[in-house]
Specification:
UDP N-Acetylglucosamine Acyltransferase, domain 1, seven-stranded mixed β-sheet, five-stranded parallel β-sheet, 19 strands, 21% helix, globular, Trimer_LpxA-like_sf, EC 2.3.1.-, Sugar O-acetyltransferase
Length: 194
């Protein structure tokens, strides 16, 4: 694999970059070809899918599971810890690093966006984009259909309710829900061990 282009280095650093750069386009083409193979492997054994994940993703911890279909911009900027679980239909726009800690469980159709766009209309007209990294801690539970916006972090042991839009950092151990996601009052957990 060839070294990243100057535009790719700017992209990964969270600086404005031109998405039409040939180096960026080539990396995305490789990711699309990989996604076609990965998403066609739905009925393959988990070990085969894990090998495919390790071909494209930056880091794949032991026991990590990503149920197809799965979509990303590059894949190589995604880092999954041990025993991470992503259910069907997740999307990760990884123009900057996206890290997901050990034991985190992510529901179906969750979208994680590291990709962002300038607020200034002139900068957008110039065709520039940028991104901000997303970090999800250990043992986090993210409910189906949630959306995490660029630059957010979710602390260890946090819960994000289904359908929530996370616009701000979520502290460790917090439970958030809604659009925009807001902390819920602390409740005693009444769960019993089986």
């Amino acid at each position: 694999m060839e070294p990243p282009s100057a535009e790719m280095r700017r992209m990964l650093a969270g600086e404005p970059y031109r998405p039409g750069d040939p180096g960026i386009q080539a990396a995305q083409a490789r990711a699309r070809a990989w996604m076609a193979r990965y998403n066609a492997a739905l009925d393959s054994p988990p070990e085969h899918r894990r090998r495919l994940l390790r071909e494209q993703l930056g880091t794949v911890g032991d026991g990590a599971v990503v149920r197809p279909p799965f979509h990303c911009d590059f894949g190589s900027h995604i880092h999954l810890g041990r025993d991470v679980f992503l259910n069907f239909g997740c999307v990760i726009l990884d123009v900057c690093p996206v890290t997901i800690g050990d034991g985190t469980q992510i529901g179906p159709a969750v979208q994680i966006y590291a990709a962002d766009h300038p607020r200034d209309p002139g900068t957008r007209r110039a065709g520039l984009e940028f991104g901000r990294p997303v970090a999800i801690g250990r043992n986090v539970w993210i409910g189906g259909g949630a959306i995490l916006l660029p630059g957010v972090s979710v602390g260890d042991d946090a819960i994000v309710g289904a359908g929530s839009v996370v616009t701000r950092d979520v502290p460790a151990g917090a439970t958030v829900a809604g659009n925009p996601a807001r902390p819920l009052r602390a409740q005693a957990h009444q769960e019993q061990a089986p």
